[in-house]
Fold:
Amino acid sequence: MTFDLAVRLTEILLALAFLQQCAEHIFWSGETRLLFLPRAVLSVVVLTGIFSEWALLGLTLHSFLFLHRFNGPYNGGSDRMGLLVLYCLCMAQLLQAGLPREAAFGYLGMQVVLSYFISGWVKIINPEWRSGRALRDVFSFSAYPVSENLRGFVQMPRLLWGMSWAVMGFEVVFPLALLHPVTLPVALAVAALFHLANACLFGLNRFLWFWIASYPSILWVQERLLGGG
Structure:
């Protein structure tokens, strides 16, 4: 995957993720409609590919209004990832061609890889995750829209223990997927399915779109590491 193609794919995916986010507020929330409308317009410009670098700069400057309005990323981890993708993309477009742009884009890919590893490591050193109790608590007490049928998983401690270790194991070994051109697409597909499951079970839909928007950068980083870029 060439640098230009990876950047363009990331732009498209990020713009779509922002538009999905904006739609929730523009059509169903009057209070924040005016705040999200400029983000939606700029995202459409990014989608067209015409002056996308300046639209990314506009989105970056506009994001400071969000940080001020909500005293930080307004929706936690998913929005932090969205801002990371946005800022790295903006630098990859506006910095001097060559190493500076590649470094900015490569930083995005490596940060996402590390985010999976660190997430898994934090879980592994937590005894409640190792025992499966953390996942039981999610299904028992979570405020997320878990259906009553899904809460029945609480009665299956062995299954939840296995699910806990499957998640932890996958996240910790995720960086190893960079070592072979076949393993990375498989790992990214599994990761996407994991985020899709979280979206369906817990309503964490923004995690799915913002993380997927970062995947082209990981594919490009791998190609560079393996000498194909």
Observations:
- Residues 9 and 216 are 7 Å apart (CA to CA).
